[in-house]
Fold:
Amino acid sequence: MIEFCGVQKTYTTGNASITALQRIDLKVNEGEIFGVIGHSGAGKSTLIRLINLLERPTEGTVKVSGVDLMALSENDLRQFRQHVGMIFQHFNLLGSMTVAENIAYAMRIVGQKSAQAIDARVDELLELVGLSKHKHKYPRQLSGGEKQRVGIARALSNHPTVLLCDEATSALDPQTTHSILQLLRRINETLKLTIVLITHEMDVIRTVCDRVAVIDGGRIVEEGAVTQVFLHPQHPTTKRFVQEAEGAHDAVVWGDNAAPRGGLYRLTFQRETVHQPLLSRVARSFAVDFSIITGRFGAIKSEPCGQVVVRATGEADQVQGALSQLAQAGVCVEEVSDATVA
Ligand SMILES: Nc1ncnc2c1ncn2[C@@H]1O[C@H](COP(=O)(O)OP(=O)(O)OP(=O)(O)O)[C@@H](O)[C@H]1O
Structure:
């Protein structure tokens, strides 16, 4: 659906130049919610703005539905942009226009619909985002979450196939963030819309995304399914994001000093293993004790999952037997040197 191939972006101002993106190869599949996470200055905004050619790559190609954007004429580019909606951190609504007028404006500039058809579409979109009763209000009369709903309605007005979200929830409180993310999920599912979002919050990625790319210093340092990246982060930047999301601290084995020595193991439970009493079952079958050192349980998108770090004590062959049985049951077992969650 969206394909970056060898993309580089260098900004030049006066004599200075800065390379914001380097050698980006990336594929976003049709119908998925793809997240890009990175710290400030990592290159997220540059990357997302390349998808509708608000920025042009210095090198490499960006294709959407097989079309090389750099090869489009001005006219074709205008047409193409109708298929790509965008929402912004600060909503970018026109303060002098009502909610209905803000949404209608996006359709008017494309100039394809009658006033009646535009009004009917505005009503449909307001219903979709849950704002029907705010149709004639001005942006200053709305909360942040309501403004973002207007932004979403406006972005969807011309039936895009891709929705770009530029830090769309960064200005919102956690509860409003959650409701906007749920709305994005519903839109993704019901309209089969491909969504690309950029954020600096791992919680946003965990709540809605199917896949994620972690960007650092203009490069993608890790990419994969959110469950994989979240539960088994590899790159130090990814580990930091996960630890921040979990409120975890440096390598500390809380209250474990008096415990008998034994290996530390990280056990990851997904799918059916989340609901089974596997730990107590193997402890009974083998002469092994497990002390839980740290743990985290929750959901990634809709999938429940859990991860604990345990200290296993017992005869070496018994410990190995217990761990093998856990692995056979579908638990991911990793030996670790400290108890940090990531
Ligand atoms: N128009 C521009 N001209 C010059 N440099 C730019 C321009 N836009 C971005 N940059 C630089 O490119 C780098 C990447 O910026 P970008 O805005 O893409 O990062 P970001 O990850 O979105 O950061 P933030 O989360 O703070 O918005 C930064 O060093 C930034 O200063």
Observations:
- The pocket of adenosine-5'-triphosphate is lined by residues 11, 13, 18, 20, 38, 40-46, 200 (CB under 6 Å).
